[in-house]
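Case study 2.
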Amino acid sequence: MSLIPVPSPAPPKRLAGIGVGAFLLLGLLYPILGPALPLLSEQFGLRATGASLLLSLNSAGAVLGVILAGVLSARLTSRNRSLLAVATLAVGCVGLAFAPTFVLALLAALLLGSGFGMLDLTLNVWLSTSYGLRSAAMLNLLSATFGVGAVLAPLAVGFADGDFRLPLLGCAALAGLLLLSLFALPSAAPEVYTPTQGLQTEVRSPRLILGGFMCLFLAYVAVESGVASWEVTHLRDTLGITTGTASQLSALFWVSFTLGRLISAPLALRVAPAHLVTGSLVLAAFSLALATIPAVAPYAYTLTGLFLAPVFTTGLVWLTRVLPGGAAPTFVFAGAFLGPVLFSPVVGAMRDQFGPPAIPLTLMGIALLDLAIVIGLRRNL
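Prediction:
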């Protein structure tokens, strides 16, 4: 399926402001479950395998949100879909902060994921059609606030000594401000929804190639979210530090990730996308192997953020060159969010069975799997 949006009549400056706030909200929420896992595990008496269900339900909700964004595109405008997504995020934040039982915490995690997936796809498509030739530049600029949010979230949990509730309520408050800003925007006609455009290309077996890219992004998001979700647990158990201190150290992953995005922009002008993605995954696998050494684990995770940073954005450029059109990115977004659904329980089970070192080793294995997928794609293109 694909989305072909009608440009919004919203004033660009006002829409840009909403984009800044929305990407900041997405960045705050994306890594927050990781620092929250230790306290949630203690609160509900969970082992790592049980805690991983929160991550899986959150990612399953993101897949559902992406699908809803596509289905509702023919009936609701980008503004109205964003309103629904942000409202869902606000309810999920409050629900997880005050969930009295594990079942309700799972439901809140599902709502958070649904709102995230819906807002992520809607926002990217909306902004990519609202600024003409400047759309790509605006997207790169505005999405930088995602990295800022991803840095602030673990720091906020760390300063709260591992308590994730106040940061979640802060996200709910930001969502409330976004709702007010979205209500002030004029509405527009719903986007045209076409299920197959963009798959007619000159490559051999385009559906097979699309499946390969979906697996590439699925495995990549499993690694990225795996570090975000399990680094705090690994550092706390390995180094014997508090959850708050481990959360503050985990923020370095997102600092280097944001820096990596800035570095990869000029680098992508000189290196072919397929080569840059390949090299990045090789280095990321190496740094995750280093994370098994307790003395260097915080630094190794920091390097992992730097190396992973180019993969998603550069991979999308590669994808659109191989399969131009609107359909492929939509399928890839939906497939990518399945990564944590499939692999978070694996990481949790490996940690329960073999101890804390299994966390970076399992993530390294997923990174190597992703590398193998990339090599397979390159040989078939």
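The first strand starts at residue 2 and ends at 4.
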